[in-house]
């Protein structure tokens, strides 16, 4: 029997967290998405949405007297996608093990070095090495595939097809989850990682912080083809994207029209519009939902706490 696959949106806002009654229905936490396959939970990005999630899973682990072993994948290292990491409760607990994968930047030699330079004084009072969880960092790029093997908590990173690859590719029957990476170059200044999760015959694509191209992003369309769920950046309306004197073209984010066009080209089942502008109130996002439904029927606007069962 195939395990149940669920996707939960713990944060869907872009740039910075927001609060107030005008944001109460869609939420104000920044990017954090969790994919659960059976008992295995895989975290994508550590925006402010990860904070409450971390408190809940740590409390449950303490009640169950079970250690936590979590895998976290990061799209890039802009503040809104990392702001929750220093406040993620499991990173302080000595019985937690975290496997953290992210892209190497142009400035630092590794993803780990990027995070070390963020979580330190004078920006934060506790250095990364003082946080008591066991932390395993690794770079991940377009050439890499992550395999989650049944019965094993840690994923295996394989550079599939490379003659120097020493680890064999796990047998298909032993694999619970497989994650592919696509490098996107249309987000300032160093680009982003886009992830495709395959599990139990289901396919999920997490494509935040990406900006569309003329005639659609053909690489992303092929990467996403036939996905059961596409989570796609849709930060701007067309009006916002082109309005003078401060158009947002080139900021590395898509419009609703770009996201729905990509979903159509890729023939995905469900489109989830993600990474909302911090100025987009509930009223504005209601209008986005109405507009997107006319462009791609099976589209939804992300909300904090939204859950997809695939």
What features would you describe in this structure?
It is a single chain. By secondary structure, this protein is an alpha/beta fold. The protein has one domain (5-309): Metallo-beta-lactamase, Chain A (4-Layer Sandwich), CATH 3.60.15.10. It is 21% helix and 27% strand. It contains 7 helices and 15 strands. The chain has helices at 50-64, 79-82, 111-118, 218-224, 238-242, 256-266, 282-295; strands at residues 5-11, 32-37, 40-44, 68-73, 96-102, 134-139, 145-149, 156-158, 175-184, 192-199, 202-207, 229-233, 270-274, 299-301, 307-309. The strands form 2 sheets. It has an 8-stranded mixed sheet. Strand 11, helix 4 (218-224) and strand 12 (229-233) form a beta-alpha-beta unit. The longest helix has 15 residues, at 50-64. The protein is globular. The two termini are 14 Å apart. The mean pLDDT is 95.
Keywords:
21% helix; Metallo-beta-lactamase, Chain A; 310 residues; globular; 15 strands; 7-stranded mixed sheet; alpha/beta; 27% strand
Biggest β-sheet strands, sense, barrel: 8 strands, mixed
Please state how the strands of the largest beta sheet are arranged side by side.
8-7-9-10-11-12-13-14
Q: Helix and strand string, N-terminal first? A: EEEHEHEHEEEEEEHEHHEHEE
CATH fold name, please?
Metallo-beta-lactamase, Chain A
Which residue ranges are poorly predicted, with pLDDT under 50 across at least 5 consecutive positions? none
Radius of gyration: 19 Å
Put simply, the count of helices is 7
The CATH architecture would be 4-Layer Sandwich
What is the CATH C-level name? Answer: Alpha Beta
**CATH homologous superfamily assignment:** Ribonuclease Z/Hydroxyacylglutathione hydrolase-like
- How many separate domains make up the residues? 1
Q: Structural class per helix/strand content?
A: alpha/beta
- Rounded mean pLDDT score: 95
Percent helix, as a range, is 10-25%
Strand content: 25-35%
Mass-distribution shape: globular
Write down how many β-strands occur, each being a DSSP E stretch of 2 or more residues. Answer: 15
């Amino acid at each position: 029997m195939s395990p149940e696959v669920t996707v939960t949106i713990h944060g869907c806002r872009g740039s910075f967290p927001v609060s107030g009654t005008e944001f109460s229905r869609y939420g104000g936490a920044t990017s954090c998405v969790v994919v659960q396959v059976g008992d295995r939970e895989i975290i994508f990005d550590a925006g402010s949405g990860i904070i409450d999630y971390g408190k809940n899973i740590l409390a449950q682990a303490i009640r169950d007297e079970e250690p936590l072993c979590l895998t976290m994948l990061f799209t890039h290292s802009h503040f809104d996608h990392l702001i929750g990491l220093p406040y993620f409760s499991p990173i302080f607990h000595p019985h937690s093990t975290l496997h953290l994968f992210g892209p190497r930047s142009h400035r630092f030699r590794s993803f780990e070095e990027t995070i070390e330079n963020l979580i330190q004084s004078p920006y934060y009072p506790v250095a990364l090495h003082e946080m008591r969880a066991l932390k395993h960092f690794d770079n991940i790029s377009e050439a890499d595939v992550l395999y989650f093997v049944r019965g094993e908590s840690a994923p295996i990173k394989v550079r599939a097809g490379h003659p120097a690859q020493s680890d064999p590719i796990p047998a298909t029957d032993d694999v619970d989850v497989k994650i592919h990476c696509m490098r996107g170059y249309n987000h300032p200044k160093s680009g982003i990682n886009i992830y495709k999760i395959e599990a139990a015959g289901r396919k999920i694509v997490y494509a935040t912080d990406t900006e569309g191209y003329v005639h659609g992003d053909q690489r992303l369309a092929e990467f996403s083809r036939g996905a059961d769920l596409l989570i796609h950046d849709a930060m701007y309306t067309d009006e916002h994207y082109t309005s003078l004197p401060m158009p947002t073209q080139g900021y590395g984010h898509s419009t609703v029209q770009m996201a729905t066009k990509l979903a159509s080209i890729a023939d995905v089942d469900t489109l989830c519009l993600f990474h909302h502008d911090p100025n987009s109130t509930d009223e504005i996002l209601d209008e986005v939902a109405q507009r997107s439904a006319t462009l791609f029927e099976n589209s939804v606007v992300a909300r904090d706490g939204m859950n997809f069962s695939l």
